[in-house]
Design a protein that fits this description.
The chain is α/β, with parallel strands linked by helices. 27% of the residues lie in helices and 25% in strands. The strands form 5 sheets. Strands 11-10-9-12-8-13 form a 6-stranded parallel beta sheet, with helices on both faces. A 5-stranded mixed barrel has the order 1-2-3-5-4. Strands 6-7 form a two-stranded antiparallel ribbon.
Length: 370
């Protein structure tokens, strides 16, 4: 189901990274904010005719509240080319068989400089992360807080973000990642599965994790879906369930899985107060291997959190381990974070428990480094 509109760009309003935002005057006389991914559709200019997908905007869905530019029909972008003018390398298609499928050079494929390492390096072939700490979050918004906590403990740690495909597919949609890369909080990014647009691409999460360590030299990996968590108020119908699936992948590869817990002291929905009810499914039932569940040791921060985490670990299908992490210094690290902290529309002062808990996961990962 797609709701189409045609209009004319009336103003350019900004953007970030490869994203351009604009205001579009529609044929019916109304106006909507719109977003264009310039590598895919080109760079709109004032006066351009644009074709829009307004489906999510009409239903007030999604992070950002923009229509999406599908095409500039009167001014198509040129065919992509490398520095010699030839077609760029890569034959892996992402967003496959959609009208906007895109072709990328994946780290695994034969044309990639990383192919030989991923095909012949003993640790990669064996699928062995050798106990490397991998923090896995349910929400994309946890990413800055996790890294802030990590860098508090190990300022020089090389952190690679691996984005899964259960939220936004284009990494370019994430303002936070663009800001974190610009400020040196992340060393690199990898998009896996159907997600695309990272500095590096991988066909699977497993390959992406191994490449982050053995090709990109990560000290710590952080895994999370892109912006735009989808939910349905049902037990199994929410995109954050991928947290459990990602922790299973880390366990399969011999990494040290660390769950960044979704905690809130301010969410208006009772089921998300304290330890989110999603943890019972994504962590308690989906995770079948081992994973650590760090939480800040301040009981005043989230009353009953320790008991909730310990209870979850006691009845989980997998080997979940509660870990108490020193809270001292975490709030200061978060306030010094050079990118904005927002989750579910709330900031640090609105919901400190949410950010301090995810920062505790980052601090714990840093302490596992040799």
């Amino acid at each position: 189901m797609i709701h189409w509109r045609r209009g004319e760009v009336s103003a350019l309003t900004g953007g970030w990274g490869e994203v351009i935002t604009c205001e579009v005057a529609l044929e019916d006389g109304s106006s909507v904010p719109a977003l264009a991914y310039s590598p895919e559709v080109g760079s709109p200019e004032v006066g351009d005719t644009v074709v829009l997908n307004v489906s999510a905007l009409l239903k007030s869905l999604g992070t950002g509240g923009h229509a999406l530019v599908v095409a500039l029909p009167d001014r198509l972008p040129p065919d992509p080319a490398d520095e010699t003018g030839a077609q760029p390398a890569g034959h892996i298609v992402k967003a496959r068989y959609t009208p906007l499928q895109t072709m990328v050079l994946a780290l695994e494929e034969q044309e990639s400089a990383a192919h030989d390492a991923l095909r012949t390096r003993a640790e990669v072939v064996a699928g062995d992360l050798d106990g490397m700490p991998v923090v896995v979050a349910e929400l994309h918004s946890a990413l800055p807080a996790v890294v802030a906590g990590l860098h508090l403990e190990r300022p020089g740690a090389r952190v690679v973000y691996v984005m899964t495909d259960t939220g936004a597919l284009p990494l370019a949609f994430s303002r936070r990642v663009a800001q974190m890369r610009a400020r040196g909080m992340l060393a690199s990014t990898v998009t896996v599965g159907q997600a695309y647009g990272g500095e590096h691409e991988a066909i699977t999460l497993h390959s992406g994790l191994l490449a982050a360590r053995y090709v990109l030299g990560a000290d710590v990996i952080v895994v999370a879906q892109g912006p735009g968590n989808a939910g349905s108020a049902t037990t199994w119908g929410y995109s954050g369930i991928s947290q459990g699936e990602s922790l299973n992948a880390v366990h399969t590869l011999g990494g040290r899985g660390i769950a960044a817990l979704r905690v809130s002291g301010a969410d208006p929905r009772e089921r998300h107060r304290g330890l989110s009810h999603h943890a019972g499914t994504a962590l308690g039932r989906v995770v079948l291997g081992a994973a650590d569940l760090p939480f800040a040791d301040d009981e005043a921060l989230s009353p009953g959190l320790r008991a909730a985490v310990e209870d979850l670990c006691a009845r989980a299908a997998g080997d979940l381990r509660p870990v108490s992490v020193l809270a001292t210094g975490l709030e200061e690290a978060l306030r010094a974070c050079p990118v904005p902290l927002r989750t579910m529309g709330r900031g640090l002062d609105d919901d400190p428990a949410a950010f301090l808990t995810t920062a505790a996961a980052g601090r714990y990962a840093a302490r596992l480094l040799q």
